[in-house]
Design a protein that fits this description.
Helix content: 40-55%
Radius of gyration: 28 Å
Strand content: 15-25%
Shape: elongated
Oligomer: single chain
Length: 173
């Protein structure tokens, strides 16, 4: 009887240790995966400011300056002239194109590492994803709706990397 009790006790302890070991393995694997997935979080967060600056640079040039047909389509345009004879508008167009390509490449690289932008304009305000910068009474919008996005937000996998900075509709009373 005593031997059977001891065997039963040892068997139960062995099962408990096996289950504990399996839990430890699962937890370690999950932590390793999370560490790998979110290892670039800080680095990606720092790069977001660069993406913002590139976006501001692109927005600072009016479309009318970029779409001047005389520069782009004339037979004697920038391609056939020596570099010294380019107009300032041609230089600006080339610079804008270079900044645009740089921004696109940066966003593609971030996307490759699961960093994705989101623009919540029109969505319901969510304090977990949005940072309210101001509230404004807008009669045509439901209170608590995002009416303006000052800075787009970013997620890495499904975790918020940077909250979107937004304006929110408030009650009109």
């Amino acid at each position: 009887k005593a031997k059977e009790d001891e065997v039963l006790d040892l068997t139960n302890r062995l099962r408990y240790l096996q289950a504990d070991f399996l839990n430890l393995q699962r937890n370690a694997a999950r932590e390793k995966e999370q560490t790998r997935d979110f290892a670039i979080t800080r680095f990606a967060g720092d790069l977001l400011e660069t993406a913002d600056v590139l976006s501001l640079a692109l927005k600072s040039v009016p479309e009318s300056v970029l779409a001047s047909p005389a520069e782009a389509s004339s037979p004697g345009s920038a391609q056939s002239q020596p570099p010294d004879n380019k107009s300032p508008s041609a230089y600006l167009q080339e610079l804008h194109h270079g900044v645009e390509m740089t921004q696109r490449l940066l966003l593609q690289t971030l996307f490759k590492f699961q960093v994705k932008p989101f623009d919540p304009t029109g969505d319901k305000f969510d304090p977990n994803k949005h940072e309210a910068l101001y509230q404004a009474p807008v009669p045509s919008k439901e209170p608590g709706t995002v009416i303006d996005c000052q800075k787009i937000g970013y997620t890495i996998k499904d975790r918020v990397l940077r909250a979107a900075q937004v304006g929110v509709a408030q009650e009109t009373s």
